[in-house]
Amino acid sequence: MRPVHYYRCLRGIVWREALRFLNQRGRFLAALVRPLVWLLIFATGFRFVLGVSIIPPYQTYIPYQVYIAPGLIGMILMFQGMQSSLSMVWDRETGSMRTLLVSPLPRWYLLTSKLIAAVIVSVLQAYVFLAIGYFWGIHPPHMGYLTVLPALILAGLMLSSLGLFLSSVIRQLENFAGVMNFVIFPMFFASSALYPLWTVRQANERLYYICKANPFTDAVELIRFALYGKFNPLAFAVVGGSLVVFMTLAIVGYDPGRGLITRRGGAE
Amino acid sequence: MLDVKTDTGAARTDGSPAEAPPLVVEGLSHAFGERQALRNVSFQLNRGDRTMLLGLNGAGKTTLFSLITRLYNHRGGSIRIFGWEIKHKPSEALARLGVVFQLATLDLELSVAQNLYYHAALHGLPRREAASRMRREIERVGLTERMRERARTLSGGQRRRVEIARALIHQPRLLLLDEPTVGLDVASRQFLLDHVRMLAREEGLAVLWATHLIDEVDADARVIVLHQGRILAEGPVPEVIRGANASSMREAFDNLTGERDA
Q1: Do residues B63 and B29 make contact, with C-beta atoms less than 8 angstroms apart?
Q2: Is residue A203 pLDDT above 80, yes or no?
Q3: Residues A71 and A220: beta-carbon distance below 8 Å
């Protein structure tokens, strides 16, 4: 297997993900409607309820919808990451994961390719969201649209690798519905996506530390800073570190020698 | 094509195995916790061998297939595909292996051609070459006109035919089929049996076909009788029948497994 084989394989996996995506326009719309509902309705309703003081990276008072935009982008990335892992659980049940795993390239490479394909799709969605948000008062500096790209990719990889790891541990789809409830919602609400953490701290110190420890908070902050052309080193380190941890766990989960598939046995 | 069994592959290591037999399984054992799924299983497939792996549900067929396709690693024994030990040289081994799984594995949202192209890409084939091989394989299973249609619109038998075409796109010399006829009508089943027989006879493909249907085991094939994780008999069908003091494969199977149970 030469490098050109690796390239063709990655291209094939990304191409398939793109096709699936185009074939499921409903999925694309649903994934966009969710954050847009939050932006257009929730943020408007809460506009005057929450006072947002001047916190970095912002330099002036900002309307609430500007505050939650990065959190909603994080939501897009997280849902997309979980959805791609949902499709993997589904793939595994229908057997198309088997065709992937029986192909000759190393397994870590196949899984990473799958991850990259999923992230490309979710980054695309994030940009569509930003484009619509522009008409709703979300005006980051022009350069911000460019500087946010690496943050989107890194955060997307981290959240998708979490999904990938979960897909290696969870066997049934029924359980996955539970994961949506037990992973996605807690991660979203216990983060800085909807409210600055200092407001949480005033209300509940313990919850504040939970939010602080949540890597989704760092994903949101990384995006928030990057959108304004600023770099948040702590958030970068946490998101990068989490990516390495989740990816390692996912590769172990799918490893033929050690993985959970081994312990459980086949479909027999 | 009942050729003489040789031992050329037995002593081979992970070197360059141009002449090694398509599949050599030696002393293979596997357990899930307490449950022993395979016990000391050994057999060999030579070029052009069409071997039916016959066993009841739970005999260990799926475990054996999972190990040969490296869904998970085997613990005891060895599996060599054209001389490449699957555990140590998975890429070399898997590149020479075509598989039709028991479960349907086509992506139903994609067209037939897209499914095939995806598979070709996973094997690192260039686009142009993939396209010509796809045309050839799909023509041989008589589905050329359906190339652009979504897999969802195909019948169960047609999907299976696409899966066989797909398994051959990277031109493997060893084809594994795990109960491929389950749920198919008589005509589709016959088509698959004939197609695979032709592949073995005319192209020298080595085939391992798992089944629990004794009717699928015809007299020109070789057979491996797997029962409770053990091989009870192996060889050309007429020899196995004779060896079991039987007049038909069904009787042979009953004799073999009955003895074991008693």
Answers
A1: no
A2: yes
A3: yes
Looking at the 3D structure of chain A, how many domains does it have?
Answer: 1
Q: Which chain A residues touch B if contact means CB-CB below 8 Å?
A: 1-2, 4-6, 8-9, 11-13, 15-16, 19-20, 23-24, 94-96, 98-106, 110, 256-257, 259, 261-268
For A51-70, the DSSP string reads -----TT-SS---HHHHHHH
DSSP annotation of B82 reads T
pLDDT at B33: 79
Alpha-carbon distance A131 to nearest alpha carbon in chain B (angstroms)? 29
pLDDT band of residue B94 (cuts 50, 70, 90) is: very high
CB distance from B63 to chain A under 8 Å?
yes
Question: B260 CA to chain A: closest CA distance, Å?
Answer: 22
Task: List chain A residues with CB under 8 Å of B168.
Answer: none
Residue span of the structural domain in which A142 resides: 3-264
pLDDT for the residue A267: 38
Considering CB atoms only, which of A15, A94, A268 is closest to B105? Answer: A94
- Sign of the alpha-carbon torsion through A113, A119, A125, A130: negative
pTM, two decimals, is: 0.82
Closest Cβ–Cβ partner in B92, B103, B118 for A95: B103
Q: Are B71 and B86 in contact (CB under 8 A)?
A: no
Interchain proximity B105–A266, CB inside 8 Å: no
- In the block, tokens 């050599």 appear at B24
Interface A:B, Cβ pairs < 8 A: 125
DSSP string for A11-63? HHHHHHHHHHHHH-HHHHHHHHHHHHHIIIIIHHHHTTTS-----TT-SS---
Instruction: Inform me whether the pLDDT recorded for A8 exceeds 90.
Output: yes
pLDDT of residue B70: 87
Summarised one tens digit per residue, pLDDT across range A63-90 is: 888 899 999 999 999 988 887 776 766 6
Q: Would you state the pLDDT for residue A92?
A: 61
Q: Crossing angle for the helix pair B127-140 and B156-167, nearest 10 degrees?
A: 130
Which residue segments constitute the domains of chain B, with CATH numbers given? 23-96+172-261 (3.40.50.300), 107-171 (1.20.1580.10)
* B63·A102 Cβ contact <8 A: no
Reported as a single tens digit per residue, the pLDDT across A94-109 is 666 778 888 899 888 9
pLDDT tens string B155-203: 999 999 999 999 999 999 999 999 999 889 999 999 999 999 999 999 9
Q: Is the pLDDT of residue B7 over 50?
A: no
